[in-house]
Every structure is written in structure tokens, then in C-alpha cells.
Amino acid sequence: MNGDEAAAVTAGRAETEGAKAAVAPGRATRDLLRRAGELRSAAAALVADRDSAVRDVREALRPLVDELVGRGLDGIPVARLKDVTEGRLRLGALEQAGYRSVRHVRDATAYDLRRVPGVGAHTAAQALAAAGQIARAVEESVAVRIDIGRRDDPATTALVVALARLVAAGPDIGPAAALARRLDGELSGLLPRARPAAGRLRLLVTRPSRRAGAREAAARIGAVLDEAAAGSVRLRLAQASADLLRAPGSRDEAWLDFEVRSADYYGLLAEIAGQAPDREAAEGFLPSGIAERVRDQPLDDTHRRVSLRGYQSFGARFALVQRRVILGDEMGLGKTVQAIAAMAHLAAGDGTHFLVVCPASVLVNWVRETESRSALRVFPVHGTDRADHAAEWAGRGGVAVTTFDGLRTLDAHVPAAPAPAMLVVDEAHFVKNPEARRTRAVAAWTERAERVLFLTGTPMENRVEEFRSLVRLLRPDLLPQVGPGDAAAGSRAFRRAVAPAYLRRNQDDVLTELPELVRVDEWEDFSASDAEAYREAVESGNFMAMRRAGFARPEGSAKLERLLELVEEARQNGLKAVVFSYFRDVLATVRTALSEAGSPAVLGPVSGDVAAASRQRLVDDFTAAAGHAVLLGQIQAGGVGLNLQAASVVILCEPQLKPTTENQAVARAHRMGQVRGVQVHRLLNTGGVDERLLTLLDRKNRLFDAYARRSDLAESAPEAVDVSEQSLARRIVEEEQARLAAG
Fold first, then answer.
1. Is the CB of residue 239 less than 8 Å from the CB of residue 5?
2. CA pair distance 1, 12, nearest whole angstrom
3. What is the pLDDT of residue 614?
4. Is the pLDDT of residue 378 over 50?
5. Contact 71, 102 (CB under 8 A)
6. Residues 711, 495: contact at Cβ < 8 Å?
């Protein structure tokens, strides 16, 4: 403990001792007012320091915003100024004089415009006013994105350095500054009123009305000091000031920190710059009545160690207000932290026990995230110590994290386990089959829990009935309103009916900082050996062999040749790449080819038989690798629950049977925290199963867009028709056999 912190602790102890004498004039009251003045000075200093840091960010932001606005105005022809003035403005003379865009007019002076023949003072004033109005509208629509490729740009670097000071101060600086502002405001009003109570003589000569007010103010100051002492406020303010005044590091250190913690930087930037997403989008287009109740719900941050985006705070409060819900946010928007925030809020009240159920592949990640983002105790109920951890959780309370299989045996470990204040089910689409054992286990715990939160970015993969099955577990009371006929009638009615239990936001709606996502379909003609392998697979009716025929004969594989070119290009640019395939033998072929080509740092594969802890170690090693590296992953394993922001190149070896499988895999890299543009290369062979798959799966994508991508209020869509994997495979095999036979 340093000198300032020790002094703060000593002062905090003294506050309680003297507060009881607040209403008695004399030395005790003078001492009380002195301590209150010191507390107010500490609060005012913290407010001033944070305001200064925020002002530095705004000043650094200004030239970047001006640049974006200028670009936007460059693309607006000067003729659009007429729209602002309802056609009253004559612009012919300006256009003839070379004023082509609104930016040209905005950057001119009234004198410049009046020099144009035919433009008088009134027209010049109108043109400048109209250009200014358009500029303000453009400014409201632009969002600054910090480009990692602009390290040498002084303006961008200045913004990163200014943000680094606030980010380094930690997530507690915002709440501490808010507390300081409240204390400063309250004590500023109380201290002048209480001063007459500092001495008996002064109190006697004070008018009776002011005398009573002085005693009342002194009593209130005593209460404020008591509250401050109980909450260690002096120590908290001292620590916040020390964190905020810590000198920022070098420009290189700030950029490195931005790469590691870009989500924190963008969260602050959105708060300071007012770059919040559209409110209706951030609230999932919920009906106004539900949205209003959610906005009114407070969110206690006592046990939380992370700041939330506005839409994340709304999601946590939605779970608290509606009690049993599906949070269906698109991948990369922080569903985990929203669940943690909801549990932390309940823990600040009377909630003691919480239960998280997730796939084994993400159990380690859940433990890490909960420990780092909250003060809640975490018990991994998995592996050899699961019985001990389960018993400790039952006795002490906290967050138990287990797998779907582990949930079935949890009662055996703790027969008298208390009902969870909240049950969180991650990747909840795994329990869409009501006959599966894991679904029955989740259903049993769902009945016991006070609140239930299902997390899934893919609540419906093949048909709307699967989505209804999740609603059935949570809110069976909604099912009469959401029958099969309602689903077939159209997506809008369906979403309106499930709105009390379903919230979804999409990346495009709420994240302005995501870097560019470039998708490229890499079409390759079959080589002679590829064509031979494909024909053999078709003749045998082996659908899976047809899908991986492009890699069946590596020595002549057109797909493999292109994959090696893409990896080599990533290596030359110092970029990390992740390669996904459904098939282990394809990944083995890729690993061999990369090794023979001399590619360094090839990790994986991440597959279903790799333990959860080992998967996380592979991802950690991939992230920590200096420069280029390649991570291989089975798409059904690596595409679930892992954060791969280190990758900026994603290679898909073949199209998948479910569009959501591909989307999940890509979202592991293109998510909050990614600072580089992401390139997605899907390897496809012409004239075969890949083409057929893309055509048939397009319908699945449209179905998901219509029914689940927005919570409510979208256009109507086609009726829900099952497109199962088995029927899809059978249809493709039959069509390809007929095509090749005819050929």
C-alpha cells in the first residue's frame, strides 16, 4: 500500500468516528466539515482528471471524423443541396463554376461563392447553410474505425494513445468517476449550508431558519461520510486517480495494447463519441412495451469487472426482466459476457447458486471468462475432480460450469443441490431434439431454475419447428400462440409471438468497428485425377466421398494447390490463417502438404476428440505465435465456442450442409476484438457437388433470415419447409448420377 492509499484508509476510519457528532457544534463538527471538504476535493480532482482524458480523446477524434465527413460529402453532388431547400436554391451558376460536390460548397466561404457570376449574398448564404445541414447529417452517420494498417498516421495514433490512458485505468474508472461526480455535486451544496454549525457562537448569531438548515446539512454530511467509510470510497477514489494519472506508454505500446484489447478501446470510443447503434436495432426490434420494461431494469455492477456496450447491458437486463429467454445474438457480440452480467446482478441480491451448461469444447473458456470478468466463484464440474467441485459449489455457492453430459450426473454428485438463481445453456441449439437425453436433462433443470437463459446464434438450422422446441422448454405458455400454422403463415407473425422470449441483434446493426469481411469463392476446375475420384464416388453413391473428392488425390488436387497458394500469400504478409474442413482426412492431407511446402507453425487439428483444455491450448499457442501461423480445425469443433481473432485469413475446404456452420466458423475470426480485415476463401470445384450444394442451401439461408435473424418486425417470408441433411444428400447423389450417366 502506498502513502496516498494509507492516508485514504486512515481518513476513512476517522469518518465514521466523527460522523456521529455531526449535529453538535464545535470541534467535532469542524473536523467533520474538514474531512468532507477533503473528500469533495478528491472527488472533484477525479472528475476533472477523467474529463480531461475524455476531452483528449474527443480532440484526437475530431480530425478523423472530419476526414470521414469530407469523404462522404465528396460523394454527394452539389445538386442535392436543392433537396434541403425544397428546390428553392438555384445552383446552375455554382455547377458551371466547377462546384461539383457538397464538400466543395461546404469548404468555401460566403465571399468565395459571391465571386461566382449570378450568385448573390442570399444564394451564397442558403448554399452554405444547406451544405452545413448535410454535413451534420453525414457526421451523425459516420463511425471512426481504427485501422491497424495506419500506425504511421499521426491522427490515428493520437486517438489510440488518448484512448490508451482510459483503457489502462480499467473498467472501474467509469463507475468511480460517476460516484465522484455525485459526491462532488452533493457536498458542494451541503458544505456552505453546514458551515454555521462549525461553532457555537456562529450558530447562535445565525437566523433560526438557517440554523435549522445548518444542522440538517451537517447531519446529512455525517451520513454521506458514514456511507463513504462503509464503501471504502476514499480508497476507491485514490486508486482511480492513481490509475488515471498513470503516464501513457509509447506510441508502439499503445498500438500493441490496442491489438490485444481492441474491444475495450472501441467500447470507450462508442461511449465518448456517441457512436451508439440505432436503438431499435440494439434492442432487437422488440415490441415497445417489452423494451420499455427492460430499459427500466437496473443492472448492478458490484460483482462485475467489465464494462458493457449498450446493447450488451440491454441483453442482460432482458434476461432479468423476462426471466426465461433465448439470447440469439449473432456470433461475436458477447453473449457470454451478457450472461455473466446477469448472474453478477443476481449475486448482488439474493442469488447464490448459478449453473452454466455448455459443450466440452468451451468449458475452459467459460471458466476463464467468468473468473476474469466477474468476482463470482467458479467451479468446473468436469473431469476427475467434478464430484468435489460439485459438492463445493452446492455448499458455498457460485457458478458451476458443466457439460451436457455432466449435467445428467450432477444430481448424483449433489443430490440436494439448490435450485439455481439462473441456469445458462450455451449453444442451446444442441437441445432442439426433445427426445435426446441431454434435452431431457436440460428440461429437468429448467423446471428447477428461477431464471433460464439460452444462448445460441443459430436457434434454427433446418426448420422452424426446431426453434419452437427451444421455446417449448422455456415458455410453454407461448406455444398456443406459436403453432405450426403461425410459422407457415409468415415470419413476422412468428417473431411477434416469440418476442417475449427471444432477443437477437446482428453484427451489422450494433458493431460499427468491425473491419472489412471479404468473401471469395475460389472456383477450381477438376483436374484429371480430381474428376476420376469424383466419378468413382458418384458411381458408388457415396455422398461424403463426393464432398471430399477434391482432396482425395493430393498429387493432382486443384483445391490443394490453391490452398497452398493462399497460405503462402498469408505467410508473405505475416498473417495468421485458419483452415476448416468437415473431414479429418482432408485436414491430414492439408497438414502433410503444408509440411512438405515448408510452412512453419502448423497447429492442430482442433477436432472432436481433442480435450477441451487441449483445444484451448492450441488456440492460445496460435494466438501467441509471432507472425504467420496456420491452425487446422474440424469445422464442427473449431467453429463452436473458440475465439480466433488472431486469424485474418479463413479457408473453407468445402461448402457445408448447414449455412450456419460456415457462418459460425467465420464469426470465430470476424468478431468483436478483431482489428484486421478478414478474408474468407471457400474452395469450390465446378461441375460437381459443390455447385449443387450452394444452390440448394441458398433456400436454407433465406429461411433463417426470415424467421430468426431479427427478433420482430421484418417482412414476411416463405413458409417453413424442412430441408434435412439426409434428404439433401440423397437428392444431390441422384442428380449427379443422372448427370454423369447422361454425359
1. yes
2. 15
3. 84
4. yes
5. no
6. yes
**Running DSSP on this structure, what letter comes out for residue 302?**
T
* Cβ–Cβ < 8 Å for 660, 456: no
Strands of 30-117 (E only): list them.
none
Question: How far is residue 705 CA from its own chain's centroid?
Answer: 20
Q: For residue 493, with 0-12 CB atoms within 10 Å meaning exposed, 13-18 middle and 19 or more buried, which class applies? A: middle
Contact (CB, 8 A) for 93 and 116: yes
Look up residue 333 and give its DSSP letter: S
Q: Which three cell numbers stand for residue 365?
A: 473458456
> Can you give the pLDDT at residue 281?
75
Q: Which domains does the chain have, with CATH numbers?
A: 1-275 (no CATH), 278-509 (3.40.50.10810), 515-686 (3.40.50.300)
- Provide the strand spans (E) within 617-677: 630-634, 647-652
Angle at 189 between CA 186 and CA 194, to 5 degrees: 110
Using the 8-state DSSP alphabet, how is residue 98 labeled?
Answer: T
Q: CA quadruple 233, 239, 240, 241: dihedral positive or negative?
A: positive
The whole-angstrom separation of Cα 481 and Cα 286 is 17
Amino acid at 298: P
Classify the C-alpha dihedral 183-186-192-195 as positive or negative. negative
* Helix H or strand E segment including 438: helix 437-448
Alpha helices in 109-196 (DSSP H): 110-114, 121-141, 154-169, 173-194
Residue 201 neighbours by CB distance under 10 Å: 8
Report the C-alpha gap between 76 and 74 in whole angstroms.
6
Kindly state the helix (H) or strand (E) to which residue 737 belongs, with its residue range.
helix 725-742
Residue 63, CB half-sphere, CA atoms under 13 Å: how many?
A: 9
Q: H helices of 195-278, where?
A: 200-204, 208-230, 233-245, 251-260, 262-273
| pLDDT surpasses 90 at 162 | yes
Tell me the β-bridge partners of 219: none
What cell was used for 305? 469487472
Structure confidence by residue, pLDDT tens digits, 631-663: 999 988 765 556 788 888 999 999 988 777 888
Instruction: Specify the 3-state DSSP secondary structure of 5.
Output: helix
Task: State the cell numbers at 3.
Answer: 502513502
Better-predicted residue by pLDDT, 490 or 241: 241
CA gyration radius, the chain: 31
CA distances from 377 to 231, 343, 394, 664, 740 (A): 22, 11, 12, 30, 61
H helix or E strand, kind and range, residue 683: strand 678-685
pTM, two decimals, is 0.62
Q: pLDDT digits over 195-222, tens only?
A: 887 766 565 556 666 778 888 888 999 9
- What gap in Å lies between CA 674 and CA 261, rounded to an integer? 9
CB 68 within 8 A of CB 144: yes
Respond yes or no on whether the N-terminal peptide bond of residue 605 is cis (omega within 30° of 0). Answer: yes
Which of 610, 545, 615 is CA-nearest to residue 583? Answer: 545
Cα 460 off chain centre by: 21
87: cell is: 428546390
Q: Are 584 and 655 in contact (CB under 8 A)?
A: no
Strand-pair partners of 355: 400, 423
pLDDT, tens digit, 9 for 90 and up, residues 409-443: 898 888 888 899 999 999 898 898 888 999 999 99
How far, in Å, CA of 321 to CA of 291, rounded? 10
Angle formed at CA 253 by CA 248 and CA 255, multiple of 5 degrees: 105
Give me the amino acid identity at 121.
A
Strands 576-581, 502-503: pairing is: unpaired
**CB contact at 8 A, 707 and 467:** yes
Handedness of CA 525, 530, 534, 536 (dihedral sign): positive
- pLDDT higher at 577 or 172: 577
Query: Is residue 62 scored above 80 in pLDDT?
Result: yes
